[in-house]
Write a structure and sequence with these properties.
Blueprint lengths: L9 E5 L7 H11 L3 E6 L1 H12 L4 H4 L9 E6 L12 H4 L12 H12 L4 E6 L16 H22 L3 E11 L14 H23 L2 E7 L5 H4 L4 H11 L8 H11 L11 E4 L16
Parallel strand pairs: 1-2, 1-4, 2-3, 4-5, 5-6, 6-7
The protein binds nicotinamide-adenine-dinucleotide.
């Protein structure tokens, strides 16, 4: 029998601060497959996430198939916009949500991982984070700084992560990023340079798969997921309409669950996918394959 077996593996899922998004669902699926899981959490959400965990508010979502609760090995503070503390602007360094959490840059993350787990502490890294401060603005109205902020956090951070964390990976390690159809097709409302960031992310997955594959023997893939009403997606403003539109028009009409993305992620991060790298896998009930709405009322 073929099973997804991640026993003995350590996964870092970057971009988890509640139980509503894809990062949490992927963390849970990796744990169901036997992996130890740590998460990277954005400092502005770090305290609230720890409070939700400590108060048992996430217990129902943390329940695994065997009845145990999903436990995180470590909850690392991470602001993926920064490589080193020298780059962090003073107003962020002194911000009350940042000043007491230690080094939250990618360099700090790499150091903490090695302190906690030795020279090669990682087998799997999931990049499940994005931020576009002007996401509600059409691209045409997006400022230069808003566009660059979206691309910095949502795409360049993968390049920086692969560069810093590949050397920390045990042989056969792999990376997974999360993209969205807006990187390939026009999705009105997904603005602020976020469509550009997703297009860059998908291209970078291919190029990094080649470069880091040859240099570090790691795999790098991407899931292009269908819309989900996560906390981040709620900032878009039209996420409920996007979810409903996909349900009405995708080849598979039932609503996409975060767990389905989690399962696909566990497969891609497992030895069963050892021949797959540099790929964008759509987990969207087939919506990307449609060229025309099937709901006649939309014509
Ligand atoms: N929800 C959707 O409809 C959808 C569809 C396709 C792809 N995705 C992608 O899935 C990934 C996860 O998003 P989600 O929708 O599940 O929402 P989410 O809110 O669960 O995850 C986004 C996370 O990014 C974190 N983050 C923001 N800025 C950060 C920074 N500078 N450094 C570190 N972390 C930061 C947030 O705190 C949050 O935890 C993103 O890449 C997103 O673009 C989402």
């Amino acid at each position: 029998m073929l099973t997804i077996d991640l026993k003995g593996k350590h996964a870092l899922v970057a971009g988890v601060a509640d139980d509503k998004g894809y990062g949490f669902a992927i963390a849970k699926a990796l744990a169901e497959a036997g992996a130890r899981v740590s998460v990277g959490t954005w400092p502005p959400t770090w305290n609230i996430f720890k409070m939700l965990l400590n108060r048992g508010k996430l217990d129902a979502s943390r329940r695994l198939a065997d009845g145990e609760l999903l436990e995180f090995d470590h909850i690392y503070p991470l602001d993926a916009a920064f490589d080193t503390m020298a780059e962090v602007p003073e107003e962020i360094k002194t911000n009350k949500r940042y000043k007491d959490v230690g080094d939250y840059t990618l360099e700090g993350l790499a150091k903490r991982l090695q302190k906690d787990g030795g020279d090669t502490p990682l087998d799997i890294v999931v990049h499940s984070l994005a931020n576009g401060p002007e996401v509600q603005k059409p691209l045409l109205e997006t400022s230069r700084s808003g566009y660059l902020a979206a691309v910095n956090v949502s795409a360049y951070s993968l390049v920086a992560m692969v560069r810093r964390l590949s050397p920390l990976m045990a042989p056969g390690g792999n990376f997974l990023a999360l993209s969205y159809l807006a990187g390939q097709r026009v999705i009105p409302g997904y603005g602020g340079g976020m469509s550009s960031a997703k297009a860059a992310l998908e291209s970078d997955v291919r190029v990094l798969a080649h470069e880091a594959g040859r240099r570090h023997q790691v795999r790098i893939n991407c899931i292009s997921a269908g819309p989900l009403a996560s906390r981040a997606a709620s900032a878009i403003g039209s996420i409920d309409r996007m979810v409903a539109y996909v349900s009405r028009n995708a080849p598979l009409g039932d609503a996409l669950s975060a767990a389905e993305v989690g399962q696909a992620a566990a497969f891609l991060c497992s030895p069963l996918a050892s021949g797959i790298t540099g790929t964008v896998v759509y987990v969207d009930k087939g919506f990307h394959a449609m060229g025309m709405p099937r709901d006649q009322s939309l014509l």
